[in-house]
Amino acid sequence: MTIPDSHEYAPVSVPGADGDNAPLGEHFFATPEETSASEAQPYLEVVAPSTLPEGYTFEAEANGHSFTVKVPVGGVEEGQKFSVPFPAGANGYSGAAIPRASVPVGHWKDGMCDCCRHGPIHPAIWNALCCPMILVGQVMHRLKLTWLGNEGTIAQTTATFRILLYMTIAYVTVERLLYFMASAGIDERGKPTDVFWTLVFTRLFWIFCFAVFTIFLVAKTRARIRSKYSIPEKQCPGCEDFCCSLWCNCCTVAQMARHTADYDTYAGLCCSETGTPPHAPSIV
């Protein structure tokens, strides 16, 4: 039996949407070489910004495109190179991806006493000193926590910063009001009246309640960060978060803020929801 040297294919007609038969061309299928050249998934090389566990994700940038990198099975060590799919690479770009700033895993970004790392007038320092609840609200908003420090839906966590901001304003307003009202509770002979002592103790109780809530919230938020980024306790095992919040509240809040924001690249803001400019990407 002889095999012909050439083959001819007759066009095949298929019914169209309007009922007419439209002929198909003679090239029905692409060759393997064509499919591999046009549909091959591009890959990029990424350098791990820190030691990261399996499944951890962070943002990287290549050729002006931002994309999410997922750490492969087994995790990676700091500085280790690994390849990842790059969907935006279909435009012909090939090269290395640049990891964006990411939150360290297994350790804090810096020490608790590195408050002046970004300068003595950085908004995070002054918020921590004067209005720690506002800075805690920014950190919790980045972590997508509710105003009680719990995980929640987007609808539940969107208002976290605003709630804590309003609570701070209400606290300062009531505290100042009680202070000035107590001053009026002194009689003409300069002796304090019963009204004076009532207002004084009410004011002290108000300050105490707000301080307890602040300590509770800072400790709970710090515990969330340690759990999320696998940061072990090094001092006071079992109660480190509480001790830091109780004895070093301002420094603890400032450290959490630096750990969850890229202050090296973007400026800090006092009263924004994230504490960074609107165009600054989230790194948590």
Query: Gyration radius, to the nearest Å?
Result: 30 Å
Mean pLDDT: 82
Poorly predicted ranges:
6-12, 24-39
**β-sheet strand percentage:** 5-15%
Number of helices: 8
State the strand order across the main sheet.
5-4-7-3-6
Distance between the termini: 71 Å
Quick description:
The strands form 2 sheets. Strands 5-4-7-3-6 form a 5-stranded mixed beta sheet, with no helix packed on it. Strands 1-2 form a two-stranded antiparallel sheet. 39% of the residues lie in helices and 11% in strands.
What this model shows, in words?
This protein is 39% helix and 11% strand. The chain has eight helices and seven strands. It has helices spanning 32-39, 123-130, 132-143, 154-157, 160-183, 194-228, 240-247, 249-259; strands at residues 13-15, 21-23, 43-47, 57-62, 65-70, 81-85, 96-99. The strands form two sheets. It has a five-stranded mixed β-sheet, with no helix packed on it. A hairpin with a 5-residue loop joins strand 1 (13-15) and strand 2. The longest helix is centred in the last third of the chain and has 35 residues, at 194-228. Residues 6-12 and 24-39 have low confidence and may be disordered.
Blueprint (SSEs and pairs):
Elements: E1 13-15, E2 21-23, H1 32-39, E3 43-47, E4 57-62, E5 65-70, E6 81-85, E7 96-99, H2 123-130, H3 132-143, H4 154-157, H5 160-183, H6 194-228, H7 240-247, H8 249-259
Parallel strand pairs: 3-7
Antiparallel strand pairs: 1-2, 3-6, 4-5, 4-7
Helix pairs in contact: 2-3, 2-8, 3-5, 3-6, 3-8, 5-6, 6-7, 6-8, 7-8
